[in-house]
Amino acid sequence: MREVLSRLSLAAFAVAFCGACEGSSPRFAQPVYFQASDSAYVIRRVEARFGQGEFEDGYDETQILFGSILDVDKTPSGWAVVDGLNRHIVLLDSVLNPLRVVGRVGEGPGEFQAPSQLSMLGDTMGIFDMSTGRVSYLGPQGDLLRVSEPAGRYAMAFAVHSDLGEFFPILSRGHYLLRAAEDRRWLVAPIPVDFRPEIQGPAGLAGMTSNLVAITQDGIVHVLDGRHLALVSYDLDESPVRIAFLPRELRDPLLEEQRELGGTFGGRELLLVRMVNHVGILVDGRVFVSVRHGTTVGYVLDPASVTASPIVVDDNWGWLRNRNARFF
Fold first, then answer.
1. Residue 136 burial (C-beta neighbours within 10 Å; 0-12, 13-18, 19+)
2. Per residue, what are the HEC states of 157-195?
3. What is the pTM of this model?
4. Alpha-carbon distance 164 to 259, whole Å?
5. Can you give the pLDDT of all 328 residues of the chain as single tens digits?
6. 126 and 116 Cβ atoms separated by less than 8 Å
7. Measuring CA to CA, which residue among 127, 52, 120, 130 is closest to residue 88?
């Protein structure tokens, strides 16, 4: 069994690393299931904690209290953490010493209403505000560089690529994504015909906005369809669609939970929960998905072999099972 040690603990999430390996995205003529791998990643122990130093402007670490940790990513100098409750970004060095707090509550440049997601583009940080639909781009030290135009269309997540621009899952009858690049906006990633729901009021909206998106450096766009629990992949230069359902061991019980919840509320899908709460691309092109189900906190999906390696928590760290995991 392969093991990956947890590198960070911010009292609300664990971060683990994985090494590079061969991988690519094949074409699937028909939908298939990811098969659970025989090996697993195990989060066993914490190697770094808060509270080793001071802010550069004199504030000590006791003044850093996270209201909620919604996302985290590696930066050139350390780490960046999205605090959704306090509506700002906390920058840390490589050993978790606090460096700077960026942003405040508001709707102007450098201000946030509901920051929810962080994505790195080289040494630039993109912060998505779910309330305004805008992306604020920050430099390595947290200085504001620019703010994108609002995405609109009920955007709930985003991914960004240096050449292809921004991608937002949106409410649409025929497409998963809104692409914004070079002062243009257009719909991309056609929804497979069998997946197209009837968009009727808030029930349809709930079914669509649980989708997530991630994009590889070579331009493969992966949409995690939250309603069908499938990874739907696109090459934007070509038309074929690749579809792979999440492992049966995960998908079947989660779909059953969705049905039970829908039945509880009179068959409506308005209150369906997001079963997968994070999707990211690893350096080797594989896809990481974060879930909360039993002892599994996520999977590393390899589209080349259609295998899924589970991420499990050692019994000594059982409290991590209810936290968000991130791989880089």
1. buried
2. CCEEECCCEEEEECCCCCEEEEEEECCEEEEEEECCHHH
3. 0.81
4. 37
5. 333 333 333 323 333 333 333 333 444 557 899 998 988 888 877 666 665 444 445 545 445 677 788 888 989 889 999 998 889 999 988 888 888 899 989 888 989 999 989 999 989 999 999 888 899 999 988 999 999 988 876 788 899 999 999 999 988 888 899 999 888 899 999 998 888 866 555 445 544 457 899 999 989 999 998 888 999 999 887 666 789 999 998 888 888 877 776 666 554 544 445 678 889 999 889 999 988 777 788 899 999 899 999 988 876 655 555 555 665 5
6. no
7. 127
Q: With residue 197 as reference, give the H or E element that holds it.
A: none
All domains of the chain in start order, with CATH: 6-327 (2.120.10.30)
Instruction: For residues 174 and 238, give the distance between their C-alpha atoms in angstroms, rounded to a whole number.
Output: 17
Residue 232 CB partners (closer than 8 Å, separation 6+): 176, 189, 192, 195, 222, 223, 224, 225, 241, 242, 243
77's tokens? 């100098």
Side-chain-facing half-sphere of 114: CA atoms under 13 Å: 7
φ, ψ of residue 109 to 5 degrees: the values are -60, 130
**Burial (0-12, 13-18, 19+ Cβ within 10 Å), 46:** middle
Residue 16 and residue 282: Cα distance in Å, rounded?
Answer: 11
Phi-psi region of 134 (alpha: psi -120 to 50; beta: other; left: phi over 0): beta
